[in-house]
Amino acid sequence: MCETQAMAERVRVAYTVMQSWHRVPGGTATSVLSLARALGERDDVDVVGIGPWIGGQPSEPWVPPIPVRRLPGPYQAIYEAWNRGLLPPTLAVGDVDVVHATTVMVPPKGKARGLVATVHDLFPLHTPEQFTHRGVRVMTGAIERARRYADIVCCPSQDTLDDCVGAGFDADRLRLVPWGATEHPVSAGDRRRVRTRYRLDRPFILWVGTIEPRKNLPTLLDAFRKIQPTEFDLVLAGPVGWHEQLEGHIDGIGSKVRQLGFVPTDDLYALYAEAQLLCVPSSREGFGLPALEAMAQGTPVIASSGTAVAEVVGDAGINVDFDETASWADAIESLIADDVERARLGDLAKLRAGEFTWERCAAQMAEVYREAAS
After folding, report:
1. What Rg, from alpha-carbon coordinates, does the chain have?
2. N or C, which terminus of the chain has less Cβ within 10 Å?
3. What does the domain layout of the chain look like in residue ranges?
């Protein structure tokens, strides 16, 4: 604990962790829980989670690392209540200084002095066709609540912050608070274990995420088809989300495309370390945590240019237009053929990832809490 932290006034925060109970918690939950863990290690912040009464305990790795108080009802009903200005988290947790809405679902702050909202992205405004009608309605209303009522709005990337400005958020209430990379050493034994468990006999290119339209997997699959024949497999790690059909894009290459589904955390880090490269062809991202986690393992990344992922990767990877299949094929083919360049980019990636830590993120967020409570 640093001297500044020890001298700082302790701030009590109601911290929403509803996404742990979602059917597919996704990268948002990973980020929110990682930040909660880092905040829980600080002495100047007292963080209490807010979850739904219905649903039991989430399964690993979605169990919140902080104490959780429950609001009555399932998360869907609670979201509807929040959009109507009902059910403040203070009903469950009592007196707090700050309510932190860790996603765009923003509760009323009740008797708290400050309301902080984290806006990961504004995708429901940009691509409503990629969500259910109910999802667009609920999330659009929540975004408007964040714009109107949050004292401070945090964004994990400059790309998202710029989107917020474009959507009418007051620029002086916006704060850039990037996510961090988790330090997770991977041993040679971990690598062997994950290869055996998933029957990965050949070198592979990796993709990680929830399968949904904005992830742009068809472009990656079509690019992978263009570079055949190759000794490399394409490994897809992550659960199926919605509105995405891949079958037509793996015709003829199905034996070389390995769909692993949900992968436990320890296995995922070993996959990052063992992959020859990670591809992130998303058309939009709020941050790009898989890219950062892969970079922390020294794995080079190819990302879509002009996105938050490219912002994270910086000069430590390769950026390609998200919809240029031929360019993706060329970038992949050139990189898997060049061991020296892969090693060079891997070294740069590891250095770049070292700039993003959860401790730094937590320190920035603690400062936001103090500002909101003042």
Report:
1. 21
2. N
3. 3-180+357-373, 188-353
- E strands in 17-143: 45-52, 68-71, 98-101, 114-118
Between the alpha carbon of residue 179 and those of residues 14, 45, 353, the distances in Å are 20, 18, 11
Alpha carbons within 13 angstroms on the beta-carbon side of residue 227 total 25
Domains 3-180+357-373 and 188-353 share a fold: yes
Element (H, E) at 294: helix 289-296
Q: What is the mean pLDDT of the chain?
A: 92
Q: Average pLDDT for residues 13-19, to the nearest whole number? A: 97
Q: Which stretch of DSSP H or E encloses residue 346?
A: helix 339-353
Q: 188-353: which CATH architecture?
A: 3-Layer(aba) Sandwich (3.40)
**pTM of the entire predicted model:** 0.90
- Per CATH, the number for 3-180+357-373 is 3.40.50.2000
Q: ∠ CA 258-263-264 to the nearest 5 degrees?
A: 155
